[in-house]
Amino acid sequence: MTDKATQLIKNIPFSTPVDIVNLVDYEEGRVVSRTLSSKSHVNITLFAFDQDEEISAHTSPGDAMIQVLDGEALINIDGKKIKATRGQVVVMPANVPHSVTARSQLKMLLTVVKQPIGITGM
Fold this sequence. Notes:
Elements: E1 31-38, E2 42-49, E3 54-58, E4 63-70, E5 72-77, E6 80-85, E7 89-92, E8 98-102, E9 106-113
Antiparallel strand pairs: 1-2, 2-9, 3-8, 4-7, 4-9, 5-6, 5-8
């Protein structure tokens, strides 16, 4: 087993199968999140949105990939509206405005990959 202080992934059991959809629950009128990793070069966050809840337009310093686990998302990337449903992924480029709205109750896994500090030209 690894020491919790050295783990790169948190808030999820190690060395056992996990139904990721059940790690966050829907809450009326809310967006619920569970951070699985938050490092200088990568963030992984699990979300549960109640219907019509959203994350408003913002930019990210890294490429962001949404994996829809349940429900339907409306993703707006710099004015382009994209519908994504269970099993689909959408990648949003770094430094481009984007937002996510739940068209139904929605669970998604968000992975943001940033340029590692001190490394250029990758």
